[in-house]
Write a sequence for this structure.
């Protein structure tokens, strides 16, 4: 066990995987001598060399295309996209190729690439260093989507991703890269996909979140507890596969749901969660399902504090849901 | 040997010695070219009869494809576009398998997931083709970088058209290949058309091959109607690649005789006389003349060859048509290695519908 | 009035707009002399010339980038993407640039491009000629999304799109391009954005659809009527702006909702609709909200009849919803 | 006159006559270069003090930017990346406006929507910059195609870095420009680095300029530390463009003296001595020496110039800092021309929160 930040845990996960398996390699912009702009790959270039920690030209198209080719040949490439906001030049390779290779070849060509990208707001990054567009990937059949919120999960989900057989979009909550610390098991620590984390038990309302919103939701639950409202908190950990059973079970118990993400609301992941609940937990629901999310605007710069969900907004929504406000 | 799949023994393994096209395999190569032409004819008529849904003919590009394929070794990997049927043939993919794919039956190795022409044959290192233009180019570079890292003495080759030189992946792929000296052969079949857009309006450079200079490696123009010329440049490029000297861009100049695909009406954008002119340099004609003059072929054996190929193709297609259709449950396979709970649930939902007499296959 | 198919109506809409305003121009692959692979631009090259009906090199990145530059300068470009499946090389220009230009410049640079693309399955097009990924665009703040289902709407929504001030993703249901015909007003016919079409009144259940699913849903409603189930059918016409009020109002009346689209279910547009209903029509809901959609697989080729929603599946879901099955 | 906005009268309008840099404007140009350098110094220190959130310095690129900007006319359109502050200055954007953007206050014309350095000034035809690398390149080509269609005698110029030559939009933009002979000047500031990646590993071509050949038009290398040389090539390229002769790619070779941005620590990937060597050809130093030798400047006036620029910058920044913050409701503006019902509802939701004492600005 070591006490680590999230970004350190990512670094440990990468180191562990690269030591285990010579087929694991990293490619991306500034991942080598510079150690990544967030230092997630710090030290790896020195330990594993330029052949396994590959600084690429400035082309996400190239990074993903090359990673896919490597994966088809049998390597286990990890592609780092510097910010999720810059993944779009690679979108064609991701949705048309990576997601569909296994399917379209009838299973002849599995294509296992892990795409790591820091995502999310709260760092004063403006429109292009803040987005959470996990819904695009969750909607794309053939991709798995993992989003850790703790150091232990960051390492454990990352190692699971690297050992998976399918493509994984691995989104790292950069806002809490360094602000959240925690104990992380040494060695080959793995956290299974498709299993939500019960952060806090409760009986009046279920708060569902992932990534950087988990600390905000947890804080809201504490506030609510002081007011006599018992909130259950679920951290989804992976959006695909989704632990639907855990979400449904919790809402069957509490009868109320508040769905939280920082992405824009319209057609965001909260929509899927609401649809699942409105179908599968319908008869247990005691109140309208609430969403606390980013607004349907591009991500702002000066006003990001207005845009982002925060513990107050979440607690407020939970209160209204419980009190029927 | 490389990752995973074993390369099936292939009669077509040329194990080329010397620089020229092996004399004793010219007739065999001719047979492949004829086979491709016969498949084209047949597939176009099958599509008109509604027996297959779509087809993109390669007529005019036989020498380019067969010549390139002969220059490869089994351990090389092919990253094709959707028009590379002749490459698949030379690699050793049985005609029957190709037809299984056109039909989308239960024997299709791609499980009927793809439109006709989008082949994938792992045993022959023939990577799954997709429709989006250009995407295979960067992938071929990545696979070549993997070969480098594994110290495998092999190369990748990627096939694409003149239109694809405008794609994002052309730029990224060639640039990565230059920077990483990837053992890749970029094989552009310039068939003069990207659907209705003529080559001159795709880009202003005098040749497509010269675009390689922007990425720091050589580009070569070759007469794509000349089997042996194609063979020589691809072989040289391959040797360069596996010697660690980096990639090569080859532009094989050909002409697309047929429509872009069965959905296309080329008379909207080009005249028959243009096509007739191009057909004077039909690669099959050129090779036939050579073989006749060298005495490797005569009128009778030539006639016989076409007939036997036609019969073979007819048999293979009929077998493919008779193969059982796909089990509808395969719809849910291969999305992931193991179905997620959500997919399992949807499969169950489908089963329930069928049980209730709905959506039957 | 003329009796037209959908693709003819699109063609009329384009012709009308180009005659009205010399700033309107079209760019795309094979749109010129070839008249578009679906013939949507037939005749326009002849009437308006190569300067206004621009055959471009094979680059969606270039098409969108150029269209955006033209729009910034004041022209009204219409970009044709040959199949929606091929829009991804332009995704960066669409989500990072087109959607955000007005916002990020504080309103200094409006950026009005209409992006037309045939979308959807049912034509035996396999993975890459069949997709419905409207959810990606609906989730992207700053884009409007229109999807007609009738010839009159095809022309009317297209003319509204061309005269709008914002970017519009205009998705054309290619499956019914020629199979659906109808009366189309001549001249400058416009259909407002954000106003759903009430296709059929009903009282037991609301069926919500758009694009090529509208005929399927309508057929289902007829079947249901014969069984004594009165289904209300709404055609959304635009996903952004969405006529939420119409959807909520209808479900408040019927108490039941079946949401239909051919896109994959997970995180699809049905999720957003369900979330809206589970929040705003909650107290009227009498049954779980059902979704009839494509499955969460890539779009298949041989098995597309298994994949796609059809009148039987829709009627079945509506029946279960009404009878509590 | 072009679309919409009027070009504000700008002192910097060079109306260049003759091919050389107008002698009577050299001192003015020097002042702009000094201003840019002063802004860099100031912004880096303000960022350290937490008074602005981010900054990307342009030190080392002043001559390239100022030289290029002087070669333009007001009716030309500029498509910048995020480092083109000196171009904005020469175009006539007030320092105060630039600082309003760095601060993101209520006076910022972009309404505080963007990170520092991502400028947009319609009146000066300085198009809104974004972070994604390269996207402005195709847009500049599109605007140039619009100028063609309107028969406006104007050109577009787009600024980008060495790293951006690997982008999709570089390839698509140059190819479109070649095919449509768009009146565009592609101005690449090769500052030798794309964050930590050195130029040699970005691409293998000997120069970046030579990449133009792949698209059928000329590419020119110019010493980007030489104001006048830059002016001459950009002016020539602009004249070529408006004469209908098509685009030009210019590679201005410079060196990035500072960090990539305030988030970057360049010592991780380059040595101080490399930087020191590059600084020997500091463009400001070079021009200063020339002005001194020509008697257009002396030690005293030079000293005075720096001081007055520093004072001006300080005043402008303080004014920007004192400007009122943004009204939080502007969050919901400019998503669309008119808010959709959904946005209106969310705005109302926000108002309710504020009324209940939550999420106050
Ligand atoms: C990204 C993308 N855009 C558009 C298309 C539609 N399309 C299919 S083939 C084709 C032309 C391809 O031309 P070329 O690369 O020369 O290959 P050829 O068909 O001539 O073999 C186009 C535009 C596509 N498949 N992918
Ligand atoms: C598409 C994209 N990928 C990655 C980044 C992150 N990034 C910001 S600047 C930069 C380097 C740019 O280098 P260059 O084009 O030479 O411009 P310079 O910063 O040197 O002016 C990178 C990789 C980005 N902004 N956009
Ligand atoms: Mg072609
Ligand atoms: Mg640079």
């Amino acid at each position: 066990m070591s006490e680590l930040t999230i970004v350190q845990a990512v670094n440990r996960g990468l180191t562990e995987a690269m030591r285990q398996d010579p087929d694991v390699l990293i490619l991306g912009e500034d991942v080598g001598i510079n150690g990544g702009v967030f230092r997630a790959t710090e030290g790896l270039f020195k330990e594993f060399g330029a052949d396994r920690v590959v600084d690429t030209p400035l082309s996400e198209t190239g990074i993903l295309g090359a990673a896919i080719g490597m994966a088809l040949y049998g390597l286990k490439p990890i592609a780092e996209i510097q910010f999720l906001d810059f993944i779009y030049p690679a979108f064609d390779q991701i949705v048309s190729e990576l997601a569909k290779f296994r399917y379209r070849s009838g299973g002849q060509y599995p294509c296992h690439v892990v795409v790591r990208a820091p995502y999310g707001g709260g760092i004063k990054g403006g429109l292009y260093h803040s987005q959470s567009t996990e819904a695009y990937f969750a909607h794309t059949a053939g991709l798995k989507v993992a989003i850790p919120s703790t150091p232990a999960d960051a390492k454990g989900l990352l190692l699971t991703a690297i050992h998976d057989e399918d493509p994984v979009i691995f989104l790292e909550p950069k806002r809490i890269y360094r602000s959240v610390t925690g104990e992380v098991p040494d060695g080959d620590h793995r956290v299974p996909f498709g299993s939500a984390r019960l952060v806090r038990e409760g009986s009046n309302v279920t708060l569902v979140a992932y990534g950087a919103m988990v600390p905000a939701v947890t804080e809201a639950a504490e506030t609510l507890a002081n007011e006599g409202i018992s909130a259950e908190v679920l951290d989804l950990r992976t959006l695909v596969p989704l632990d639907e059973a855990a979400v449904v079970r919790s809402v069957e118990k509490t009868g109320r749901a508040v769905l939280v993400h920082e992405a824009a609301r319209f057609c965001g992941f909260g929509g899927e969660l609401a649809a699942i609940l409105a179908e599968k937990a319908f008869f247990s629901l005691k109140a309208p399902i609430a969403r606390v999310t980013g607004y349907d605007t591009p991500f702002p710069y000066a006003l990001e504090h207005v845009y982002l969900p925060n513990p107050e907004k979440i607690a407020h929504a939970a209160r209204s849901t419980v009190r029927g406000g | 040997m490389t990752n995973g799949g074993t390369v099936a023994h292939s009669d077509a393994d040329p194990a080329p010695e010397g620089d020229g096209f092996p004399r004793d395999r010219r007739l065999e190569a001719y047979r492949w070219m004829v086979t491709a032409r016969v498949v084209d004819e047949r597939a176009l008529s099958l599509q008109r009869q509604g027996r297959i849904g779509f087809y993109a003919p390669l007529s005019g590009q036989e020498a380019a494809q067969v010549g390139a394929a002969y220059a490869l070794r089994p351990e090389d990997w092919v990253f094709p576009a959707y028009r590379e049927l002749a490459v698949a043939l030379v690699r050793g993919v049985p005609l029957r398998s190709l037809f299984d794919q056109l039909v989308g039956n239960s024997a299709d190795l791609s499980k009927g997931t793809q439109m006709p022409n989008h082949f994938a044959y792992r045993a022959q290192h023939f990577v799954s083709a997709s429709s989006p233009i250009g995407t295979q180019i960067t992938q071929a570079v990545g696979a070549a970088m993997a070969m480098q890292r594994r110290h495998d003495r092999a190369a990748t080759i990627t096939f694409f058209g003149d239109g694809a030189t405008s794609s994002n992946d052309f730029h990224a792929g060639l640039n990565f290949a230059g920077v990483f000296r990837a053992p890749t052969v970029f094989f552009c079949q310039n068939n003069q058309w990207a659907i209705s857009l003529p080559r001159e309006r795709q880009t202003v450079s005098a040749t497509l091959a010269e675009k390689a200079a922007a990425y720091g490696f050589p580009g070569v123009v070759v007469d794509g109607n000349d089997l042996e010329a194609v063979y020589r440049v691809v072989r040289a490029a391959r040797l360069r690649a596996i010697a660690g000297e980096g990639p090569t861009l080859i532009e094989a100049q050909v002409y697309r005789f047929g429509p872009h695909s069965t959905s296309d009406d080329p008379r909207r954008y080009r005249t028959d006389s243009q096509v007739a002119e191009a057909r004077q340099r039909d690669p099959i004609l050129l090779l036939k003349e050579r073989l006749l003059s060298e005495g490797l072929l005569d009128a009778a054996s030539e006639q016989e060859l076409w007939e036997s190929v036609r019969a073979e193709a007819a048999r293979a297609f009929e077998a493919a048509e008779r193969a059982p259709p796909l089990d509808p449950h395969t719809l849910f396979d291969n999305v992931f290695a193991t179905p997620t709970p959500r997919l399992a649930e949807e499969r169950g939902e489908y089963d329930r519908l069928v049980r209730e007499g709905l959506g039957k296959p």
